[in-house]
Design goal:
mainly beta; four-stranded mixed sheet; 1 helix; rod-shaped; binds 2-acetamido-2-deoxy-beta-D-glucopyranose; Ig-like domain-containing protein; signal; FN3_sf; Ig-like_fold; Ig-like_dom
Length: 235
């Protein structure tokens, strides 16, 4: 048992280092380092999707055969598509995948492989690219107070196809005093009651809600103003 446990720990450590290293330079235990590719990134729809693959050396370390960037191919993980017409040799050791005018369906994990003289393929490194949009404006923003006992705001969002977060705050009295959304909440829902932290602010007449949308391609701010009395549904 103990022996198994410690083996687990060793595997966990090895796995951790393999992960940390592969995410930087594709250098895991037991594998040879042929080269590396562009780091993972998010891309705007309509831009060119570019992945560089760079060989460490013009000599293959294990079999002592000289190679150059013409031995490199790009293949997409999901459908194994090979992009020969989009692959360009930049220099002796660098090959570049360039897909013009990318759209969301081009998102994926792109593998750079080296084809050995015996036609076997070996992974050099992989790059994950998500193609999407900056955050979109929210729509259908609604807030309802039930008898001043609780205040519930909901809104709709449109997918940006990349990881995006929306946060709601409400400005009280002035822009300088704002309250965040109590837990539990999510990207399209927020609720204040007397028991939440922060609690429901029943005394404020003019409500200004601010939604911030945020992802790696941009940010948005949407502002909604309400007369508090106008959104109360009495019991
Ligand atoms: C690699 O090949 C070159 C010439 O092809 C030779 O001079 C060299 O000794 C070889 N190195 C190894 C480690 O086999
Ligand atoms: C790359 O290797 C190929 C095949 O061995 C060779 O035909 C080509 O001239 C080489 N290119 C460069 C830039 O060395
Ligand atoms: C995205 O591009 C793929 C191929 O590059 C194409 O098949 C697809 O129709 C495009 N989708 C949109 C929404 O333009
Ligand atoms: C969001 O709305 C603002 C005005 O409220 C507008 O200027 C902006 O272009 C909109 N953004 C998007 C992505 O629709
Ligand atoms: C909100 O307040 C209304 C009216 O008092 C009550 O019926 C409802 O259960 C409350 N909802 C929550 C989630 O507290
Ligand atoms: C957000 O939370 C509310 C209340 O818990 C729930 O009704 C709604 O389905 C949730 N929305 C998402 C997208 O998870
Ligand atoms: C609330 O807004 C109205 C008009 O939008 C304004 O006349 C009033 O002075 C405001 N009240 C407070 C307390 O800010
Ligand atoms: C966007 O979100 C990231 C991560 O949550 C955060 O570090 C950054 O400050 C946010 N940017 C804006 C403009 O809110």
């Amino acid at each position: 048992m103990n022996c198994l446990r410690s083996l687990d720990v060793i595997w966990a450590i090895l796995f951790f280092f393999a992960f940390v290293q592969t995410s930087r330079s594709c250098w895991g235990p037991g594998s040879l380092q042929y080269g590396y590719t562009t780091s993972d990134y998010d891309l705007n729809v309509g831009s060119d999707l570019i992945v560089d693959c760079i060989l460490e050396s013009g000599i293959l370390p294990n079999i002592n055969v000289s190679v150059n960037s013409s031995y490199l191919i790009f293949q997409r993980d999901s459908n194994h598509q090979i992009f020969s017409s989009y692959t360009h040799q930049i220099d002796k050791l660098t090959s570049q995948l360039r897909i013009p005018n990318a759209n969301v369906s081009d998102s994926g994990l792109y593998h750079c492989q080296i084809v050995f003289p015996d036609n076997s393929k070996h992974l050099v490194c992989s790059t994950k690219v998500f193609v999407g949009y900056p955050p979109k404006n929210v729509s259908n923003f609604k807030c309802i107070s039930r008898n001043f006992d609780n205040l519930t705001c909901t809104w709709e969002i449109e997918s940006s196809y990349i990881k995006t977060t929306y946060t709601l705050t409400v400005n009280l009295l002035s822009d300088d005093i704002s309250m965040h959304c109590p837990e539990p909440n999510n990207d399209t829902f927020c609720q204040w009651t007397e028991d939440t932290n922060p609690p429901y602010f029943t005394m404020i007449r003019n409500l200004t809600f601010v939604i911030n949308g945020n992802n790696s391609l941009g940010t948005i701010e949407n502002i909604f103003k309400f007369d508090h009395f106008a959104i109360v549904i009495p019991n």
